[in-house]
Write a structure and sequence with these properties.
seven-stranded antiparallel beta sheet; homodimer; Pnp Oxidase, Chain A; elongated; 2 domains; alpha+beta; 327 residues; Arc Repressor Mutant, subunit A; monooxygenase (chains A, B); WH-like_DNA-bd_sf (chains A, B); 9 helices; oxidoreductase (chains A, B)
Chain lengths: 327, 327
Amino acid sequence: MDKPTSPFDPSGFRRALGMFATGVTIVTARAGDGAPVGMTANSFNSVSLDPPMVLWSLAKSARSLPVFHAAEHWNVHILANEQNDLANRFARAGEDKFAGLALEPALADAPLLAGCAARFQCRTVFRYEGGDHIIFVGEVIGFDQSEAAPLLYVSGEYALATRLSRPVATDAGATNGGAAPFTEELLGYLLGRAHYQFMWSFQRTLDELGISHGEFFVLSLLAVRSGLDVAEIAAHTAYTGIAADAELLAGMCARGLLAVSNDAVARYALSDSGLAASRQVLAAAHAVEAALVEQLGRREAAGLRNLLKHLIRASDPGLPVLWGAGL
Amino acid sequence: MDKPTSPFDPSGFRRALGMFATGVTIVTARAGDGAPVGMTANSFNSVSLDPPMVLWSLAKSARSLPVFHAAEHWNVHILANEQNDLANRFARAGEDKFAGLALEPALADAPLLAGCAARFQCRTVFRYEGGDHIIFVGEVIGFDQSEAAPLLYVSGEYALATRLSRPVATDAGATNGGAAPFTEELLGYLLGRAHYQFMWSFQRTLDELGISHGEFFVLSLLAVRSGLDVAEIAAHTAYTGIAADAELLAGMCARGLLAVSNDAVARYALSDSGLAASRQVLAAAHAVEAALVEQLGRREAAGLRNLLKHLIRASDPGLPVLWGAGL
C-alpha cells in the first residue's frame, strides 16, 4: 500500500484514536484443551441487525490468537463502571485471569462472566484481514443486558458517561455592562444553587428540630468523630464559613444535644438525644438524596459524585483529615 | 447461517448494543459528480496501528452506499461535544447537509469538516461483507486532533465522558451506630463541601470589600435584574437560606452600594460603586473558576456543569424565573 507522504507519528495516531470514546469489553473463548481464554478489548462494534452481527479486532501478535482463530464461539462482555479492576486484570498478560470468577451457563463453550452491562454470545462467521490485526465478525446467538452504567475508555483513561443536559434557563449575563458576565456556566453559581436547593429540600427537618446550619454541621461532625474540643470542632467546620464557636456549643449542651467532658480541655460528644437528632437529620438527607437520584438517574448521580470528588480534590484548602481530600 | 434457537428481539438487541458507549463520527466522501456526501455513524473503530487502519460500517440500504462503494477516499470526523447539532443534521436524510459548512483543505477529494475532536483521512483498502451492512476498512493517510471533549453516544442518547475519580479520603460513616451512615457518597455532603471550598477560595475578596454572603447574593442578583423591590429580592434569594431583608438592603444603601427609587414601593438598583463591587466580586469568582478548571480539566468541568444542571432541574423548588430551572 502507498505510504502517506507526510511522516507518520504512531503515538500521535494512538492519541487521535483515543478521541473516539468506546466502551470496554472482555472477549472470551475456550481453548482446545478446555482452558478459558479472555482479554480486554475496546475494538468492539455492532455490524448488522439482521442477521445480528458484531465485530472486534485482535492483534496478530496476541498470544491468544490461535485460540480465537480456532474457536467457533466467543462471548463479548460490555463492562459496567464498577468493573475497571476486571478490565485491568484481563488487559495484563500471564496470570490466571479467571481465578475466582464465577462463570455463568452459556449457550456454547465460551466462558460467560457475570456482573456486566451487556453480553453477546457469538458464533464466528467471518475472519478478515486488518493490517496488524484480524477482524472477527460473529453472529449473535444470545444476548442480555443489565441496568449498570457502562465503563468507558477515552483518551487512555477509564471514564463515566453522563447524558447531555439542556441549558438551565436564566437571563443572567444579560447585563453587568461589559464585565465578564454572571452566567449559569459559573461553577460557583451552579454549585451554590445545587447545594442550596438540596439544603432547601430538607430544611423543614432542621426547622422541626430547631437545628441551625451550624448546629447541623456540629452534629454531623461529632456523629463521625466524637470527643473533639472547641478548637478541633471549629477547624473541622471552618470551611463552611459558619462559626462553630464555644457559644454555639454551649447552647447545644444546654439543649441536651451535646455532652461535655471534664477534661482540662472540654471535649464534646453527642448526647443520646443529640445522636437521635443527628440520625433524624441524616435520615432526612438520605430521603432527599434518594428522591433526587430517582429523578436524576443512577448514572448521572454516579457521574456527579465522581466529578464533585475531582473538584473537592482540586479545591481542597487543606482541611483536617475527616474532611481532607486525602491521597 | 443458523438462526438462534431462542426467539430474537431486534429492539432488545439494539438496547443491548447501546450499552457499548461510542464516540460519534461523521464520515464523508465525494460523489462522481463532485457532490459532497456524508452521514453520522458510530460504527467506527480502530483496526491496525502499522499500517494505520480504521473501519466503519454502512447499511446496504443506505442511499449513499453507491458513493462510498465507488469512493477511493473518505474522511472520518470524531465530533466534539459541542457538535451534537451537526451530528443530528448528518443523521437526517435529504436536505443539503453541507449547507453553510466551511470545508478545509484535504489530502484527497473527500470533504473535511472543521471543529472536530479528531479527524482521519482514509483511503479504502477493504470492503467486507457484514450481514445487512458493508464494513469499510481504510488506511489512514492523514489525521489530526484537537483538545475538544468528544461527543458520546450511549443508550441512544448523546453524552459526555468524565474520567473516574479516586475516592475522597474520609473515615466518615465509621460510626453513627447502625443508622444509615454519613458517607462521602452523600450528594448533600459532596455538594456542600465543593460549594464551601469554592466560596472559601474567594472569601478573601468578600472580606476585603466587607461584603457578607447575603450582600453578595443581592449584588449578583441586581447586577442581572435591576429595579426589584424588597419582596422580589427576598424571593430571588430565599433559596440560599440567607435573609435578604429591608435591614440588609438599608445597610447596603447606607454604604452606597445600592440606589433606591422613590416609587410607592421602593425599588433597588446597583449604584456605581455597587456595580464596581459586583464586578470585582465577579472577577474574583471567575479567577477562582479559571484556576479550578485548570486543575480539574476542561472535560471534567464541562461534565460537572452538565450534571449540576441536571440536579438543579431535578431539585428546583420553583424559583423565580432568573433562577428558575425553566423548560
